[in-house]
What we know:
Elements: H1 2-11, H2 14-28, E1 35-42, E2 45-51, E3 60-67, E4 75-83, H3 96-99, E5 120-122, H4 130-139, E6 145-147, H5 149-160, H6 169-172, E7 184-186, E8 195-198, E9 208-210, H7 253-259, H8 263-268
Antiparallel strand pairs: 1-2, 2-3, 3-4, 5-6, 7-8, 8-9
Amino acid sequence: MRQTGHVSSALHSQAAIDRARAALEADEGAAVGAHVAAVTEDECAVAHYFEADLPAYRGWQWCAVLAASPGGEMTVSETALLPGPGALTAPEFVPWDRRVQAGDLAPGDLLPPAVDDPRIEPGYLLTGDPEADEVAGEIGVNLERVMTRLGREEAAARWFDSDFGPEAEMARGTRFHCGDCAFYLPLAGMLGAAFGVCGNEYAADGRVVHAHYGCGAHSSTAPPSGAGSPAYEPYDDGAVESHELVHPVALTAVDEIELGVPQDALRSV
């Protein structure tokens, strides 16, 4: 125990600090600041930390790990630049396939599906029988991959919560529903029970809409009554009478005498 304690004491000494500083200056080739701390790694190793005044590495520290055995010479195990408390560090690395978001795809970009993507599964596999494969192509089931039930359910959840779902502000502002609109084009397959594409160029044209989404451009919307706009009655300018505006004329002293009325009184009228 006394030998172990002697080793630990030696690794915390000023000589150990000087040895760690010299190793950092030799290995890293940079100026080493004040000694910050000494952290015991185990019975025979101590890590010494120093301030690092480097551009773009605010709060980082130089570290040198010293090791020794009872009766052995002190050696430097490793040196490194490490972030200290409150250091400015890079965010956690996120693989590219998890960084890509909806809307990031640009013209010319390639975005293959992930390996074992749970949204897709193998479709029709060619049998080698020309007649069978030809029939499969005619009825449209000869796709190499198709969406799984999970993929379809995830798509339906996104569309339901989108700006063209049944809870959207536009849908809440009308009594009409897309499901009975002439411009509504139902999707094929399982999703066709609740979703379709709007074919009205003045509405959600080309968008996938829920059957209970709706807007004022429904095919059953009645035209406004009368010749005016739907919100206001026609403006009848014949009901307005026009009068010529006569400006008062300043009276002279002669006018005042002829009328028998003081000029100031006329001006005040």
